[in-house]
């Protein structure tokens, strides 16, 4: 009986260790997914933000991107814009926060492919964005390219994917 | 015996409602008047198990996954040339009869030849501006299934 208890305890300790290991050292795919999840959260905002909150939010969002990031947005009938570098992203985000009455961003489908060297990854995902006051959402397929820099996954390129050509 | 029946029913329901059928809610006006905004429907994922998609079918087209899809009608089949002229659809130069189109439109689009794995899809609401309407060529592997409750 004592041996069984000890074995059960050992198994529990090993399981806890494995679980802790995956939390502390997530696989690249998990890390990318987590990063994108945080991006969606930080890209969302409520309306009537103070100037300080606008700047802080834009700064927080810019930190997800590399300094030389390139963002190509091409949603027919909605938006056609190219942003280069963190500063332009910050400015665009601050502008959106100041002019929109809130924004809710979600990534309902995310497919992550990590390169063999585990230093870069691409994420094909669906973006759902709903501006405050709007009844309908914008759905758009996008491709994110990420690079591992200083232990953190930074977005180096964002491009829209045309579901229909 | 009753327990076995319950288990069989539960398994069957899970397979049908989680694997075969996908519940969808229409978000947008591009399929008006056939499918209204925020209306509910089901997608049959086995519809094209035995045959390929056909002209006139309303299909679900996946984006990056199946949590968000486009709902469109197939008007062009692989290998065909599709064009819009004065709001009429031309397939290989001939006008396509579209009984589901209730209102006139003025769309124009240059002819496009579809590849071997491409279908031409478009929404039924062609009263909306052409530039605001998502339509065009769709790869076969993006077509998830057919709308179950067709009109």
What does this structure look like?
By secondary structure, chain A is an alpha+beta fold. Chain A is 40% helix and 38% strand. Chain A has 4 helices and 6 strands. Chain A has a 6-stranded mixed sheet with strand order 2-1-6-5-4-3, covered by helices on one side. Chain B contains 1 helix and 11 strands. In chain B, 13% of the residues lie in helices and 35% in strands. In chain B, 32% of the residues are buried. Chain A binds chain B through residues 76-77, 108-111, 124-126, 128, 136-137, 139-142, 161-165, and chain B through 27-28, 37, 61, 63-68, 70, 72, 121, 129, 131-138, 142.
Descriptive keywords:
heterodimer, A: alpha+beta, six-stranded mixed beta sheet, 40% helix, B: 151 residues, mainly beta, seven-stranded antiparallel beta sheet, 35% strand, elongated
In short:
Chain A has helices at about 1-25, 30-45, 50-60, 85-100, and strands at about 65-75, 80-85, 105-115, 120-130, 140-150, 150-160.
Topology:
The complex is a heterodimer of chains A (165) and B (151).
Chain A: H1 2-24, H2 28-43, H3 51-62, E1 65-75, E2 79-84, H4 85-99, E3 103-114, E4 120-131, E5 138-149, E6 152-160
Parallel strand pairs in A: 1-6
Antiparallel strand pairs in A: 1-2, 3-4, 4-5, 5-6
Chain B: H1 2-20, E1 21-25, E2 40-44, E3 58-62, E4 69-76, E5 81-85, E6 88-91, E7 94-95, E8 109-113, E9 118-122, E10 136-139, E11 143-147
Antiparallel strand pairs in B: 1-2, 2-11, 3-4, 3-11, 4-9, 5-6, 5-8, 6-7, 9-10
| Distance, first to last CA of chain A | 67 Å
The amount of helix of chain A comes to 40-55%
The low-confidence parts of chain B are none
Number of helices of chain B: 1
Q: Greatest interface and its residue counts? A: A-B, 21 and 23 residues
Determine the mean pLDDT of chain A: 90
Major beta sheet summary of chain A: 6 strands, mixed
Q: Indicate the structural class of chain B.
A: mainly beta
Strand content of the residues of chain A, in percent? 35-45%
Shape field of chain A: elongated
- SS class of chain A: alpha+beta
Number of strands of chain A: 6
Uncertain stretches of chain A: none
The major beta sheet of chain B can be summarized as: 7 strands, antiparallel
């Amino acid at each position: 009986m004592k041996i069984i208890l000890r074995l059960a305890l050992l198994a529990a300790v090993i399981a806890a260790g494995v679980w802790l290991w995956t939390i502390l050292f997530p696989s690249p795919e998990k890390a990318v997914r987590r990063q994108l999840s945080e991006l969606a959260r930080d890209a969302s905002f409520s309306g009537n933000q103070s100037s300080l909150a606008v700047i802080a939010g834009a700064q927080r969002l810019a930190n997800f991107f590399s300094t030389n990031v390139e963002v190509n947005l091409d949603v027919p009938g909605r938006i056609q814009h190219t942003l280069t570098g963190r500063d332009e992203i910050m400015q665009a985000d601050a502008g959106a926060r100041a002019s929109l009455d809130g924004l809710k961003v979600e990534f309902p489908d995310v497919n992550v492919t990590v390169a063999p060297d585990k230093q870069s990854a691409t994420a094909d995902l669906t973006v759902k964005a709903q501006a405050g006051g709007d009844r309908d959402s914008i759905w758009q397929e996008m491709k994110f390219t990420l690079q591992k820099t200083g232990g953190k996954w930074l977005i180096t390129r964002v491009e829209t994917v045309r579901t229909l050509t | 015996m009753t327990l076995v029946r319950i288990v069989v029913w539960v398994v069957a329901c899970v397979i049908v409602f989680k694997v075969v059928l996908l519940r969808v809610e229409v978000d947008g006006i591009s399929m008006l008047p056939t499918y209204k905004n925020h209306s509910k429907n089901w997608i049959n994922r086995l519809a094209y198990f035995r045959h390929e998609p056909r002209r006139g079918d309303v299909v679900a087209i996946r984006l990056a996954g199946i949590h968000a899809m486009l709902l469109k009608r197939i008007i062009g089949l692989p290998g065909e040339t599709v064009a819009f002229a004065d709001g009429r659809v031309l397939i290989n130069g001939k006008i396509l009869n579209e009984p589901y189109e209730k209102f006139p439109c003025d769309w124009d689009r240059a002819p496009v030849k579809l590849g071997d794995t491409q279908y031409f899809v478009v929404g039924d609401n062609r009263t909306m501006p052409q530039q605001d309407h998502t339509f065009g060529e769709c790869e076969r592997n993006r077509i998830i299934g057919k709308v179950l409750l067709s009109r």
